[in-house]
Design goal:
This protein folds into 2 domains: about 80 residues, no CATH class; about 45 residues, no CATH class. The chain has 3 helices and 4 strands; from the N terminus they run E-E-E-E-H-H-H.
Amino acid sequence: MFVIFGFGHVKAKKVGETHPMGCPNCNNVRSFDIVEQSKWFTLFFLPVFPYSKNKIMVCPICQRGKALENDEYERYMSGDVDHKEMVNEFEVKKEELENLYNEGHIDINEYKRRMNSLKYERTIS
């Protein structure tokens, strides 16, 4: 008897949109899609139960995006987002990373990886 199971079947559902903002990847200014993404355990190729759920913000042009924390997700869904505040948060995080690298706490590869993950947090007001 064979049992075929798997992980990683992904279902995505659009639940909202952000205010128009600039995409750091394609430089287009658009309302990003807010998507709830769930990964499912499958049995005989049929989804059985979800084992992971993520909330992401996706550029409708290039399809690149950023994972949202629960508080960010709630702010976007309520429409209570201050884009200038988000740009300032990005600049502070960028300075902290530069200090860590300059002081020798992280190597160049870790610095680049962290900077790449931060670039999707920057928005244009």
